[in-house]
Amino acid sequence: MAIKIDKKITGYNVVKPEDKVAANPVTAAAAPKEPRQAEVIQMHESVERPETLVGSTFKVKSPLFEHALYVTINDIVLNAGTPHEQRRPFEVFINSKNMDHFQWIVALTRILSAVFRKGGDVTFIVEELKAVFDPRGGYFKSGGVYMPSIVAEIGAVIEQHMKNIGMIHDPEMDEATRKLIAEKRAAYEQAGAKKKADVTAAPVGAASAAKTSGDTESSGFPPGATLCVKCNTQALVLMDGCQTCLNCGYSKCG
């Protein structure tokens, strides 16, 4: 229907359909509300891969694999030549003669590299990988450190690399704790030496049995030490009726 305008037009605005709905309280109440959208903030700076990157290669030898894995982590140097220069992981490569696990190794390296290139705080990857357990059981690496899976050891390698470039910092052990651990270890070894001397004076058969159970392990900690729940190192010994770790100082008695 046409409408005749008798007065002079002094101004105008365009009425949208949603404006009509908002003007009518009944219609506005009946109209479905649109779901809230997440505010996604995109990175405004695109970092392209330089022609040359610096990095480190770590050897991982697991009893679960016939051949060793070689984990290479390359870093990009940010703010080069300035007081704010820093290295950040940019890509990961894993090579091995063992082709049985080729698919998941390639998938893992591509995902890790994509996360590194996205930027931000990527240290969470370490805890995620170290929390992966092998249903067949884990193993002890050199030094008596328990690894629940080969993926967890890859996570430990990435953690070590991040420590090397300053992304992760270990809480420093104070001098009093270091001294306490040294004293406890010396006392434990002295008690073990005394026990060994007593066994030496015993009959030959008993001495032979004691020698079998008292061989020094490759971990560098006393034989018979159990796994510490805090540092995952086979260094937990019983001292004065309390389980004490000779590696990190953890004690069940507080």
How would you describe the overall organization of this protein?
With 254 residues, the protein is of the alpha+beta class. It has two domains: 111 residues; 71 residues, no CATH class. It has seven helices and eight strands. Strands 1-2-3 form a three-stranded antiparallel β-sheet. The protein has a three-stranded antiparallel β-sheet with strand order 6-7-8, covered by helices on one side. Helix 4 runs antiparallel to helix 5. The protein is elongated, with a radius of gyration of 32 Å. It starts with 16 loop residues before the first helix and ends in a 9-residue tail after the last strand. About 7% of the residues have low confidence.
Task: Give a nutshell description of this structure.
By secondary structure, the protein is an alpha+beta fold. Helices cover 35% and strands 18% of the residues. The protein has a three-stranded antiparallel β-sheet with strand order 1-2-3. It has a three-stranded antiparallel β-sheet with strand order 6-7-8, with helices on one face. It has a two-stranded antiparallel sheet with strand order 4-5.
